[in-house]
Amino acid sequence: MRADRLIALLLLLQRRRSLTAAEAAEALEVSERTARRDLEALSMSGVPVYSTAGRGGGWKLVGGARTDLTGLSADEARALFLAAGPLLSETPELKSALRKLSGALPETFRDDAEAAAAAIKIDAAGWGQISRSAPAHLDQLTKCVVAGRQVEIEYESPRSGHSRRLVSPLGLVTKRSVWYLLAAVHPDSPTTIPATNPIRTFRLERISSVVEHQTAVVRPPDFDLEGEWVRIVSVVEAKRGDLVVRILADPAVEGPLRYQFAGRINFEGGSRAGDGIRLAATIAEFGPRALAAQLAGYGDAVEILDPPDDLRAEFERIATELAVTWLALGTAYARSMAAKYQGPPEALEAYDQALVAVMADPHKGAANPYFSLNGNMFTALDADGVVGLRLDAESREEFMATYGTQLWESHGTVMKEYVAVPAQMVVTEADLLASWLQRSYDYAKTLKPKPTTKKKS
């Protein structure tokens, strides 16, 4: 590249008092004509270089002028500006340094380097997240790492609580905008560190104060920041695999699962389950509480195969807490609606309890309580305390034959797909009502959805 040759020429001129076109051509392995054009380009770009004719003549820098460049190629200068550019707004010193470096670059590629500084923007925050500001003690700890001085820090650990520690700061690492300090600890003396596991990792946002000491850091002889961080990451990732489960997932949630669990989920392929295709996968996580919290929101889209007892217990805990919360909300809602219902209050209460058990929601409507799915009503409670349940033909026949009941009648109209659940059964057979309500709900899922809003005329 010509820019590289121009820098090489500039460095040759710095080392020699005079340089002929022939000498430049030989050094750069180009023709003499090309070397002469390059020397003229240096002069035209603002570099103080001139030529003299005759014996002992050649090209020289005016007054022996020198540049601060130390051999940067055009690609190296561009790479430097590209790497530093995203940090300029956060580091005034870096901005000043690049401005000085830019002034030392030849004009032939100064514009290219400055454009590189503005070419990249790093937004470390995920979608829907807020960018983290730099931790309070980042600058101070950086200076101590570079200077090799020990520090006394106050640290708030989520497990062990507040502590004050003397440490030798050895390096800083940022991962997804979270900063960590890697330091050797001094539990006994500033001059000694433990023989085993001397390095600890501290999250900077949990450091509340930093006091600098003049004592030099004690560095383990084999410490390497890159290698130590790789080791720490591997240990953490291994812990995230303490619990491994196999799942079957609806293909519709494959993307969200991959995004949420990243390298901790491994899809094995598809298999037929029930009336559709389910994707088999394995998931690794820290423990049952963390995994249950992440999977509970997927509902029946994710099935865990042979869950261990502690994981099953976590799901039961979540389900119980949600049921209690929503039952309380449902009860309050039901009470507000009960005043409008003209039937037996005990029937409305029993009906809502069964609805909450199956759908986690109380009834819709006021004077005429009901419930629907995708625009299709599948159950209702009339003013006599009788519940109508919408069932498939086989289930209707089974229900009427078992309980000696008949099709449900609403406002003088026989509802052909509905069976009547007698008021006495509604009030006294809560579990039975809930089980048949579940079958009605399952049947409603198979019905073609109806529009839930009226069409505009």
Give a quick precis of the structure.
By secondary structure, the protein is of the alpha+beta class. The chain has helices at residues 2-15, 21-28, 32-44, 74-84, 92-104, 107-117, 138-147, 225-239, 254-261, 288-295, 309-338, 345-359, 393-403, 423-428, 430-445, and strands at 49-52, 58-61, 149-157, 161-175, 178-185, 199-203, 207-216, 243-249, 265-273, 276-285, 302-305, 370-373, 376-381, 387-390, 407-410, 413-421.
What topology emerges from the helices and strands here?
Elements: H1 2-15, H2 21-28, H3 32-44, E1 49-52, E2 58-61, H4 74-84, H5 92-104, H6 107-117, H7 138-147, E3 149-157, E4 161-175, E5 178-185, E6 199-203, E7 207-216, H8 225-239, E8 243-249, H9 254-261, E9 265-273, E10 276-285, H10 288-295, E11 302-305, H11 309-338, H12 345-359, E12 370-373, E13 376-381, E14 387-390, H13 393-403, E15 407-410, E16 413-421, H14 423-428, H15 430-445
Antiparallel strand pairs: 1-2, 3-4, 3-7, 4-5, 5-6, 8-10, 8-11, 9-10, 12-13, 13-14, 14-16, 15-16
